[in-house]
Amino acid sequence: MSSPNALDTAGLALTMDDTQAIDDCWNRIGIHGDKSCPLLADHIHCRNCSVYSAAATRLLDRYALQQDDHRPVADTQANEDIVTRSLLIFRLGEEWLGIATRCLVEVATLHPIHSLPHQRSRALLGVANVRGALVACLSLVELLGLDAISHGTPGGRIMPRMLIIAAQDGPVVVPVDEVDGIHAIDERTLTAASASGTQASGRFTQGVLQWKGRSLRWLDEAQLLSAVTRSLT
């Protein structure tokens, strides 16, 4: 099993392919290039330029244009001999959550998030530049209806991270307050958590289980990724 910090090359290829049709002048003559762009004198940084904003808008338009090109993908269930399921465990505010690692492309350090004019939804934070590619950035706090206040932990060693998630039409970025890591959870525990009901557990939740003395909310990745797609169209 790969480390949560290891780059999924297939996922990165998706990110790069999505930007091939966009003139990434910020990487050639802009702030990340040789800085020869004559507009830099007025705008100081590429993110303040209308060309950068227009490129980000075209990136988001891609989500709307590709909706009819996809058919639902069947969830391939592991065979009956597999007794664990791999979850990425992370924290938002005071709540711990888990999501299937098959959704994960990479766990990355925080990147600057550049807001856009005329935001399309409350969950859309803007775009982040990930290795020269513009990637849409969403708030899981908003999507899940959580308390937006981030609470640190004693010692100050916890560093916020960004999760790069493989959504239906390409990677998206979501900031989180802490990543614990990837863990194999006994499938019997997950089955019991799912059978106990999710009505009081919040949106996009398959169940709630006890994990390392914490109450862990197990997210339904299919429903969550569907909500992510809707937020970008």
Commentary on this structure:
The chain has 233 residues and is an alpha+beta fold. It has a five-stranded mixed sheet with strand order 9-1-2-11-10. Strands 3-7-8 form a three-stranded antiparallel sheet. β10 (205-211) and β11 (214-219) form a beta hairpin. It has one domain: OB fold (Dihydrolipoamide Acetyltransferase, E2P). It contains seven helices and eleven strands. This is Chemotaxis protein CheW. InterPro entries: CheW, CheW-like_dom_sf, CheW-lke_dom. It is found in: Cytoplasm. It holds the Pfam family CheW. Residues 84-230 form the CheW-like domain.
State the low-pLDDT regions, or none.
1-17, 67-76, 151-155
Q: Which oligomeric form is depicted?
A: single chain
SS-based class: alpha+beta
Query: What is the average per-residue confidence, as pLDDT, rounded to a whole number?
Result: 76
Helix segment count? 7
The N- and C-terminal alpha carbons lie at a distance of 34 Å
3D shape = elongated
Let me know the CATH homologous superfamily.
Answer: CheA-289, Domain 4
**Helix-strand sequence:** HHHHEEEEEEHEEEHEEH
Compute the CA-based radius of gyration: 19 Å
Report helical residue fraction. Answer: 25-40%
Q: Can you summarize the main beta sheet?
A: 5 strands, mixed
CATH class value: Mainly Beta
* CATH fold-level label: OB fold (Dihydrolipoamide Acetyltransferase, E2P)
Number of self-contained structural domains? 1
Pfam families: CheW
Subcellular location: Cytoplasm
Protein name: Chemotaxis protein CheW
Keywords: Cytoplasm
